[in-house]
Design brief:
There is one protein chain. Helices cover 26% and strands 18% of the residues. The protein has a single domain, classed as Class I glutamine amidotransferase (GATase) domain (Rossmann fold, 3-Layer(aba) Sandwich). The chain is α/β, with parallel strands linked by helices and 259 residues long. It is globular and about 45 Å long. Strand 1, helix 1 and strand 2 form a beta-alpha-beta unit.
Amino acid sequence: MGKKVLICATNFGVWAEELQAPWDVLVKAGFDVTLATPQGKKPLPLKISVDPDFVDPMLAKIPGANPKVNPKFVCDRTKELVQGDEWAHPIKLADAKMADYDAIVGTGGLGAMMDLAPNKYFKGLIYEAYYSNKLIATLCYSTAALIWTRDPKDAYNSIIKGRRIACHPRAWDFEDNVTLELWGATEDNKGTDAVYAGFLYPLEDIARDAVGPGGLCIGDPDATRDNPRVEFDWPFITGNSVESSIAFGEKIVEVLNSR
């Protein structure tokens, strides 16, 4: 039987590929994958993340960068997953037990800053995985949960103190107001009407503080699909942002298959 992996996602707007890619990679690898969300409802993608014509306003300012971050095949596959059965029956984070899994995975999206990264159940699962020597993998803004997971056995420092991690780069943080409109929203699963004034918090800055002088935080603004940024420092796998989603999933498979 394949390894058992708990994949966690926001109910307030995933970035499509940041759930779709690791999900498909892990399923294809034959892993036993369980999906969990804060509300126990299907995770839905942000509308802008399933729009192949969306232009990332920050990447558009960087010479040589490709601001069109949503390949059509990703948009189509994500819509297929939303309309199908694979994501239809997640468990609640509150009901998940880390003892049942070999690894925990956090996926990204603007909504992850609000209901996933600070979620006490998600952080509790991460803490349990940490002290059970199990794999902990986070992508993009779900890495904030590692910052907020504090260790009472180490003066309440972050569990990533002294570690090498990747995180969403400061240069890519949106500066203008952002809404969290969802694709596939229904009356009983419509996310939030919150509006961010840019991003909710600057992940790279607080991650640098969390790893401290003995660690290394890499927010790589030069990362691309052809040159993704994923860091591995057991028990942590961390991924930069959407362009590294496939590589992030592949690294999880590589590490779990090696153990």
